[in-house]
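Subject: design request, 431 residues
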């Protein structure tokens, strides 16, 4: 619900914190914290972000006389672990609760992966598909100026997220660099390689997820050469997940985007689908597969189901009907608490989001290190380091899950939260 002025125009969003996504993140944290027996003071301290900033600012349209006021956000969940790290999301549903949830998850994710960052996230409530390139550039540069005192290579390092990309990061880097008087490539990650971006960063989230799928498949006895996969979402994460699964011998039988789902029992021709997308921008109208709904896609019989789209996709309503052996989460927050319980009871193996999609922030860490050292790594070195960190985190999580008899999500949260709690205790309270 929004507050309206005397003209009936929406002015200030009401109950920004009242977000299903933030509630999910908090409940996940509280459940894991209880099992860990975390000090009550630390539990209360980590339940909300340490810093938040909301800004309303003008965005001039291509028609010079039109100026739209938009809402922007930057949230830093905890500063205990080092500088904060997190993406910037451009989406029409962005709000403080969503950004805070994503920042909290990023804290646990970085701690789980043993990265020297706290969690952060940013966003602007707009529909980027309705904006021209020049409008997006003006919006991005103004957003950067509004939050310029929050970000910095030793303070808070943004990265791409839904609705943003390497070009957006280049604009942020340039705007920040103009303010300090010299080039600062390490202020953002996920930027073009020519500006100091890392080899392999764009593919890292999908590649990292597939590294984990391979290890998980070995653990639960899935032969990937004879396995099938369903991918919900065909953006950066979903597309690369599908590609790397196909290279591993998995038959990708269904994918989807915002327009529709595509299903072919014999396997989809991903290269032909990519050609279709080049011409049409959506999967709608592709002739080489049957068109299905999102609900039908999620309930297809398969070995691996990878939700790589939006949050809250696996719920108590459809969890009883999933026909996969493994749920590999590329999206943030795709599974509800009630669904988690059902999946655990049904013995469906879950690669939780804070582990499954951690390849992106891990490769971002590599980029930040390369920029700081002013020394670029090869693609082989990036992928080798990514594989090592992802597999080690998977093994730590699996050991915790088996030792404490908890599901993989709870185990991953416990691994990350315990590390942050220990760091907070060691640093103490000032003054």
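Subject: RE: design request

Done. Sequence follows.
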């Amino acid at each position: 619900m929004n507050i309206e002025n005397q003209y009936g125009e929406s002015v200030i969003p009401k109950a920004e914190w009242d977000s299903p996504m933030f509630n999910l993140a908090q409940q996940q944290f509280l459940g894991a914290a209880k099992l860990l027996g975390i000090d009550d003071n630390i539990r209360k301290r980590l339940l909300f972000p340490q810093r938040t900033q909301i800004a309303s600012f003008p965005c001039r349209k291509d028609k010079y006389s039109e100026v739209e006021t938009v809402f922007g956000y930057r949230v830093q969940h905890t500063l205990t672990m080092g500088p904060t790290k997190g993406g910037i999301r451009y989406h029409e549903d962005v709000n403080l609760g969503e950004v805070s949830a994503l920042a909290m998850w990023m804290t646990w994710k970085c701690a789980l992966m043993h990265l020297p960052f706290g969690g952060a996230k940013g966003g602007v409530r707009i529909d980027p598909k309705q904006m021209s390139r020049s409008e997006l550039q003006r919006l991005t540069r103004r957003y950067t100026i509004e939050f310029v005192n929050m970000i910095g290579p030793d303070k808070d390092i943004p990265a791409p997220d839904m609705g943003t990309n390497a070009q957006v990061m280049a604009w942020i880097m340039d705007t920040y660099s103009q303010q300090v008087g010299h080039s600062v490539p390490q202020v953002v990650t996920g930027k073009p390689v020519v500006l100091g971006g890392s080899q392999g960063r764009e593919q890292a989230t999908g590649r990292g997820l597939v590294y984990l799928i391979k290890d998980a498949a070995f653990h639960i006895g899935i032969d990937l050469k004879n396995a099938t996969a369903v991918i919900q979402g065909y953006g950066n994460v979903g597309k690369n997940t599908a590609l790397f699964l196909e290279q591993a011998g998995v038959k990708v039988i269904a994918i989807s985007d915002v327009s529709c789902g595509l299903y072919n029992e014999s396997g989809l021709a991903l290269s032909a689908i990519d050609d279709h997308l080049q011409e049409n921008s959506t999967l709608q109208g592709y002739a080489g597969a049957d068109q299905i709904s999102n609900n039908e896609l999620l309930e297809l019989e398969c070995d691996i189901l990878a939700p790589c789209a939006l949050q809250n996709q696996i719920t108590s309503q459809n969890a009883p009907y999933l026909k996969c052996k493994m749920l590999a989460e590329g999206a943030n927050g795709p599974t509800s608490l009630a669904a988690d319980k059902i999946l655990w009871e049904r013995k469906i193996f879950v690669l939780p989001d804070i582990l499954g999609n951690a390849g992106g922030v891990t490769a971002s860490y590599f980029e930040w290190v390369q920029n700081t050292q002013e020394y670029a790594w090869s693609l082989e070195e990036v992928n080798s380091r990514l594989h090592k960190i992802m597999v080690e985190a998977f093994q730590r999580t699996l050991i915790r899950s088996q030792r404490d008899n908890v599901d993989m999500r709870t185990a991953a949260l416990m691994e990350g939260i315990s590390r942050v709690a220990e760091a907070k205790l060691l640093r103490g309270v000032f003054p």
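Confidence is low (pLDDT under 50) at residues 1-12.
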